[in-house]
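Quick start: what a row looks like.
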Amino acid sequence: MTTPHQIIIDTDPGQDDAVAILLALGSPQEIEILGITAVAGNVPLALTEKNARIVCELANRPDIRVFSGCDAPIARPLVTAEHVHGKTGLDGPTLPDPVMPLQEQHAVDFIIDTFRNAPAGSISLCTLGPLTNVATALQRAPDIAPKIKQIVMMGGAYFEVGNITPTAEFNIYVDPEAAKIVFGAGIPLVVLPLDVTHKTLVTKERNDAFRALPGKVGIAVAEMTDFFERFDKEKYGSTGAPLHDPTVIGYLLNPDLFQGREINVEIETGSDLTLGMTVADWWRVTDRPENALFIKDIDDEGFFTLLTERLATL
């Protein structure tokens, strides 16, 4: 029996963030969630911290600790994505307001304390939203950087370029200064960009499989993806909604489903035209040092089989 991955999930739920959290909660043998830290992103902070608790209660896990973090990017006004996720961030299903409390400690302090008090290389950070909380923790406590096992993140793009601007993916665009800090911190990074997540489409057959699961989780997930697929179908002409954030948890559970390469990735913070671009040296044309495992391909059938099996346990 292998020891489970100890993780902190940093997130801005969002329907696909919700599915990622549910996938982690449905995998207790492999994943131990030490805490969920909420950040402003898809919707403002008051909604992301609430949504994180709604999702924990949906999975009957009110014991999971949820912390509220940064309500705005490091150096810019907040950009949100209600046009994708709806006004609550979890539009689609009707879910009750959470009863479980928010933790009193600030998310950034929780991240710092957790890594300071843990053996080096024992805990991974899984980031599903803008990197504000993580970068702020690294700014305040640079001593934690060598203690972080890895950061597995959904963010960026190379071949798919951008989804919020012509050149930028939303999570990186919202707080490019934070992304620059994280990518420059010398921490092992695994990056799941749009290049992968646009291959994980919830087709009608896959959503029917969610809806047919026993209990309320499958139905809620199907209703979430029903809601936000309209945006991608209209924009990309795709057959369904891409499940961006669950690929982060999928990578932890079965990295063999994914393929990528170690490359250098720099974050553009100075240009109006390409702000937030992940400048990925996929073809290794510079001599800049590798700083990320940048994922390009996924076995999407294997991923959806895993996801559906795990949601069924909830």
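That is the whole record. Residues 67 and 103 are 5 Å apart (CA to CA). The longest strand covers residues 31-38.
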